[in-house]
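Exam revision sheet. Question 4 asks you to relate a sequence to its structure. Input first:
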Amino acid sequence: MQDNNRLLKIITIILSLLLIGSSFQLYTSLQKINLQNNTINELTGLSESQKEKINQLESTLSALEIKTSALESNLSRTEASLKNETQTRQRLEKELINLTMVAKSEYGVMAVDENDRGHVIGLEVIVKEGKSNLFLNVANVLVDETLQSSAQTAVHVARDVTKTSLIDKDILINIKSEEPGQNLIISGGSAGAAMTLATMAAMQGKTLRKDVLITGTINFDHTIGRIGAVRAKALAAKEKGAVLFLVPQEQKSEVGEVGIEVREVKDIEDAMKYVLQAS
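Answer key, C-alpha cells:
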C-alpha cells in the first residue's frame, strides 16, 4: 500500500512538472506571437506610410513632368526663334557685305580628315570698304592657332606683291566646308599660299584657275614653306578635277604618281604664274 502511494506521488510530481513545462512553453510561444504581431503591426504602419510617401512622390513627379514638358515646349520655341534670328542676322550681314564689297575671289584650300584623307575646302576672299581690318571666318573645319597668323601673313604678302593700299579696305577670308561632321583639319599654316593667291586675285580683280591647286605655308619673304600629308592632298586635288598641283620645294618626291602634274614652287611669285589669270 505504501509502495502504491509512493508511486502515485511520483506520477503526480512528474505530471505537475510536465504541466509546468508545457505552461511555460505555451507562455513563451504566446510572447513570441505577441511580439510578431507587434512587428507585423509596425511593418503594416510603415508600409502604409511608405505608400503615402510614394503617392506624394508620384504626384510630385507628375507635376515635374508637366513642368518639364512645358519647359521643353518653351525651349523649342526659343530655339526656333533664335534660329530665325540668327538666319536673319546672317542674311543682313551678307547683304551689308554685298553692299560694301569691292571685289571677291574664290579658290580652294587643302585639308585632311581624321583618317589622313585629303579634301578640298571652299575659300572665299572679299575686299570691302572698311578700316584695314582682317576678318577670318571658319565653318565645319578644325584649325590650330597658326591659321590666324597665316592669314595675316597672306594679306601682308598679297599687299606687298600687288602694291595695293588697304587703308580704307577690310579683308574677309571665309573657309567653309559644305560637309559638317567630317572633322576636317587645317594645321600648320598649310592654307597660307592659297589664301595669299586668293587675296591677290581679289585685290587685282583677277580670277584663279580652279584646275590648279596649291598647298604650302606662306612666309613674310614670299617663300612657300613645307607642309604635311602632301600626297593625300594631291589625291584630293585630282578628285576635285585639278590638272596641276603645286607643292613646296623638295616635296614633289613625297607625292609619287597621282595621275596629275605636280610642280614645285619656291615662292608666291612663282606660284602666281600658274594660278592667276586676267578676268
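Marking note for examiners. DSSP finds six helices and 13 strands in the chain.
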